[in-house]
Amino acid sequence: MNEWLENLKVGDTVIVSGGDLNSRDYVSTVVRFTKTLIIVNNQRIGVKFRRDGRSRGGGFHPLWLQQPTQEALDEIMQTTLAIRCSRHDWKSLPLETLREVAGLLCNASAKKELEEARLESKRRIKVPKKT
Going by fewer Cβ within 10 Å, which terminus of the chain is more open, N or C? Predict the structure, then answer.
């Protein structure tokens, strides 16, 4: 058995891996131990793992506990943020905010092209002056 599993305590962070093809790893916290199980939280319910880190029962899509490394935590965060961004209603944001977001996403040359396009669109649209 892995030494890190033997040294787990209530409150420690773990990564839950596995599941079906549409599953992705997630970060969880150890909430309780029994003689034979490690119980981690999964939103409102406890997920039970054997002391070897494998999910109890197994089934067709078993889960397992993984030691949290900074690299693995960063990868989970990157995936989570990418999914959140892909689900955002971008049209609800003001144009200037979208320009700022686009500026963050674009490299320097693309950012320059974006600014030039914005200036060009302003030149094309003749706004009547108030008198």
Answer: C
Better-scored residue on pLDDT, 44 or 24: 24
Q: Report the C-alpha gap between 25 and 117 in whole angstroms.
A: 41
Task: Return the closest-CA partner of residue 14 out of 33, 31, 34.
Answer: 31
| Mean per-residue pLDDT, 69-85 | 90
* Average pLDDT of span 8-20: 88
Nearest 5°: CA angle at 68, between 37 and 44?
55
**131, part of any domain:** no
The domain in which residue 104 lies consists of 93-124
Whether residue 68 lies inside any domain: the answer is yes
Q: How far apart are CA 72 and CA 130, in angstroms?
A: 58
pTM score > 0.90 for this model? Answer: no
Please report the pLDDT score of residue 74 as a whole number. 92
Q: How many domains are contained in the chain?
A: 2
User: Do the domain assignments include residue 29?
Assistant: yes
State which H helix or E strand residue 120 sits in.
helix 108-124
Nearest to 28 by CA among 10, 43, 17, 13: 13
